[in-house]
Each structure stands twice: as structure tokens, then as C-alpha cells.
TrEMBL record:
Protein name from the UniProt record: CDC20/Fizzy WD40 domain-containing protein
Gene assigned in the entry: LOC123046569
Region (Disordered): 1-51
Signal peptide: none
Keyword terms, alphabetized: Cell cycle, Cell division, Mitosis, Repeat, WD repeat
Protein's GO biological process: anaphase-promoting complex-dependent catabolic process; cell division; positive regulation of anaphase-promoting complex-dependent catabolic process
Organism (species): Triticum aestivum
Family per similarity comment: Belongs to the WD repeat CDC20/Fizzy family.
Amino acid sequence: MDAGSDMMSPEKSGRRGARPPLREAGSISTPSMPPLQEPGSRPRPYMPSLCSTPRNPAVKCYGDRFIPDRSAMDMDMAHYLLTEPRKDRKNAVTPSPGKEAYRKLLAEKLLNNRTRILAFRNRPPEPENSILTELRADVASVQARPAKKRRYIPQSAERTLDAPDLLDDYYLNLLDWGSANVLSIALGNTVYLWDAASGSTSELVTIDEDDGPVTSVSWAPDGQHIAIGLNSSAVQIWDSSSNRLLRTLQGVHESRVGSLSWNKSILTAGGMDGKIVNNDVRIREHAVQTYRGHTQEVCGLKWSGSGRQLASGGNDNLLHIWDVSMASSAQSAGRTQWLHRMEDHSAAVKALAWCPFQSNLLASGGGANDRCIKFWNTHTGACLNSVDTGSQVCALLWNKNDRELLSSHGFTQNQLTLWKYPSMVKMAELNGHTSRVLFMAQSPDGCTVASAAADETLRFWNVFPDAPKSAVKEKTSQSRLFNSYNHLR
């Protein structure tokens, strides 16, 4: 078969890859126009003609394909092909002078070690008002910020006071710390006042045996007046500055008043009869509103910071949220007034604490058969979380300056536990009491916590950190400054 018989004729130049004929026979020159290429394909390097003027007319030249006749071999062209630079077998691209020059430049930079590879000699100009600039500024501020040190939490009480005759009754509330930095505690039939600034102790009142013992104490918002609930169902209001009885609220409850809570000039009292009564201390007919929902003793009572909602817990294992707009002075038979009724606890609900940084967040604690701390959205009534503490929950206090919660417990460890909210990871456990820690109260600056237990001791713990510098400082002296040990007797 003829060597070129299976090829297309040169006249069919439209075929892909075909090249125009050479201008001068036997010369090596650049074609007048580039060859046709497929879109996206790599450019082919220039290749000179592979044949000169054929000596044999049967020999045909077709650009990059050459099938010579042995008798018409062009030795000059064969020599050129043998001496042509070797191509890259993978990429089929001939080395360019630019590439060689770049290699020499890199080698020179590495040898002299003058600059970094792929680095600008001069810093490029920063774009104005760009997201990149803001991100760099944020990163720089984070890197410049010093690492937050882990807060030291003392594991022992800073001070311990004797509290003889403290009633070992889970359902009472016998400890409160007023805004004037004076602590009140009921021991049997007597109410004592302890001034945290001076460390002095004074006796406010001793109740008659027929009316006593004292079952609850609560400071008014002004820090001067204090309410005292009695076993006889009466409530007394005293002026602490003059040790003078201002008035007695009677005829409302049928048995002891174990819980009290102030909302401006409204004193709310909860009794063993299950009734919750709002008393306006400014008027003669003080009982202005009544909440009915508990069937047993009301042992927990707390107004929210806004004064719009009231939380009540009872020995019937119920937790109620009351709204001031839903209360009525004359309740019809069978009518319910609560905003929400929670039945999730399986024991008495005494420990209640409204969150200082989220107005609709309430923490509640259950008794020995429940042992849980639950968190509630009081707008919807939904339970947000429940944590089994493993022991009776007696009292709860929020940190005023950080997202932390302190709980006091009864059986079996009788400890105070500091929790990180909302993860509820234990930060510390404070031990020292030998019996259940029934009551807790917080100093006005929020740093110190007083705990009273059935072991008849009153202990002070520096569990919460100081308020930030931007916060308003209290006028009174810091409650941490103790000069001597006194006994409450």
C-alpha cells in the first residue's frame, strides 16, 4: 500500500490539525497564520516543516505527520529531529525561557536568603472600609485581650456565729438581709439584728409565748421596716431604727404565717391554711387581694423584680405564678386566678429565686423526695431545664453580677453548691454545716451569702465576686470586713 494512500488530500485543509503548506521548499519558518485548535486545548509549540521539496512525487508532507519514503529520506531534517529538546512526557510543553529565568531567580533568593518566597517587598495598601479590615481589627483586639483568670472561691466560711434555738423547720423562712446591710434572724421567740458594717448584734423583739414562735421575717425595700410572721397567724411590722411596733395585721390567716414577700408597699403573706394575701400596709383595711390555689401550707413566696408576677410554692408540691392583673379582692367560688400552675415537682416547693438578668426566668427547688432544681419561663409556663442535685433543696440565690446560682441542701451532705448557668456545671461545693442548710440570705452588694442551718450556726461565705467597677457602689460598708467574732444570743 502506498505510504500516503490512507491520508486525506492536502487540499482538505479544513480538517482539524491540518497545517498550511510551506512557503519555501526546505526552509524552516513560521506559518503566516496560527493553526486551528480546539477550544480549551493546550497550544501546540511551533514545529517546523518535516520535509523539504520531495525528490519523489509519491512522497507527501502533512504538517506534523511524516511518513517518508526510504529512498527520499532528508538527512538534514532527521538530524534536527534527533537534536530537538526533549519534551515533557506528561505535559507535552516545552520549557520556556521565562520558566528557566524564574528558577534562577528562586535559586538566587534562596542562596542570598534576602526575602521570603511569595512575599511582597512592600506591604500592599490596605483597602478602606472593608470587611477584611474589620475582621483584622477584631482579631487584633481578641489577641490583645488578656486571658481571663479563674476566679478563686473560698471553700470555708469567713465567719461563723452561734444561732441557738434556730427552729429546724423546712417550711419556715427565718433569715433575711436588708438593703441597709442589717441581717435579721429569728431564734425561737426572739428576732435579732446583726449590723454587718459594725459587727454589732441587737435584739429587736421577743414575742409572747402565746403568739410565738416567730415563723418568718422579711425586710421592706427601704431597709428600715421589717415584717414578722407569727405562729398565731398574725403579722407584725416593726421600725428597726426605733425598735417600735408600727402595726399588727390580723384576721387574715387561720394558722401560722411561714412566708412573707414585699412588693413596694404591698406585703404578701402565705399561711399554713394555703391562702396568699396581699396586704397594703398604708391603709386600714390592709387585705386587698387574695390568691387561692394551694391546698397545703405556702412555704415559698417571691415577687419578681418588676413587681408584676408572684411565685408561690407549697407543701402540696405545686408551684404557681400569679399576675397582679388577675387578682381580685372578692373571688368567686371555684374560680382559679393563677397565671400558670406547675405540677412537675414531687415534693414541697420552698426554694424560689427570680433571675436578676432575665425577668421571666424563675428557679425553683424541691424537697427531699424531689431533689431537683427546675428553671421556668414564667411567660409561657414552660420548664426549661431540670437538674437532679441528689439532696433536698432548701434555698436558692442568684449571683447579681454573673450567671451563677447558689443552692443550699439538706440530707445528706448539708452543703452549699455553686452552679454555672445555664450549663449547670458545679463550680464549687462549700462544706462546714453539720445539718441541713435551711435558710440563705444575700448581702446588698451581692458578694456575701449568709447561711443558717439546723446545727444552730450562722455562716458567712464570700462565694460571689465583686460587682464590676461600672456598677453603682453601695453606701454601706462592705459586708466582708469583719473585725471580731460575735455570738447571737
